[in-house]
Each structure stands twice: as structure tokens, then as C-alpha cells.
Amino acid sequence: MVEMVETGAIGPVASQASTERHTPTLDASASPAPVTPPVAPCDLVTVPARQGLEAVDILRRGGAPAVGPVLHDGACDTLGFLVPPGTAAAWDMPGSACTRTDGRGLRLPELPELPGPDGATPRPADWLLPPGDSGEVTDPAMLREALGQAARLIEAADGCR
Fold it and tell me: Which of 12, 36, 42, 144 has CA 20 to 30 A from 152's CA?
């Protein structure tokens, strides 16, 4: 609704369509319902933090929404990329692991625990890229490519020392 305003000698004077005379209606005045992210099952690809951070950079340079939510463990030893459910069945990337959830336990926007470097001891996690700041989940093919490129970059950098 556009309100007409006339300018008076002292300042703006509201016309008869003043908000003082407006009676709010429930549908127009009610606050919108809070938007919650969709609750979707997903699998989790964990990698060493250094390789994961390189992969995040590679994916982000490739354009949005190439990378979805990413977790890091409390000690920052590992990063976890949320990927579509079923990814673990075909995941075979050396130096990484993919945990199958079958829709149980790991759901957005809850914060799961990440496996530690020994693969067994769970560690508390926090978001590096939280849900809502990025895509829903990371595409596994794009992640595989980015992790491979990250491993080659790290190997080249370490070989220059």
C-alpha cells in the first residue's frame, strides 16, 4: 500500500491513508513462519584438513553452488563434506573415507561427530561452511575431482621444499 504524504510548513503531514488509521489484518500483519532448512539424509566424505581446505578453495573458485556444507573436527585434523545419500557405495578415493548413513543419524542441520584420524574415535564437529551458506550437499563427482587436484597441489608444494 502506497501512502500519500503532503509536505507542510513543519514537515511531512500524513494523508488520510495514515498508518494511524490503518487496522492490521492477521494475514498481512503476521510475521512469516521461520524458514528451516530441509531435513535431508546425506553421506559424509572425510579427508585430512589440508587436502579438504584446498578442495574447498578449488570448488569455490569453480563457482557456486559447487560446494555444500562442510564440517571440521575440534582438532581441525579432518574436514567432512556432506554428499548425497548412497555416495558411500561407490566411493573409492584414496586418502578419504565416505560414511554411509542410510538416512539414520546424519541429517541437516544437525551437527554430527567426525571420525578421528584413527577412523574410530568420534570427535565433536563444527561448521566450516554451514547449511544455508552453501548448496544443499556437494556433488560427489565434483568433490572427487577437487580432492584429486588438491592432492596433486599438495604433493607439488611439498616436493618444492
Answer: 42
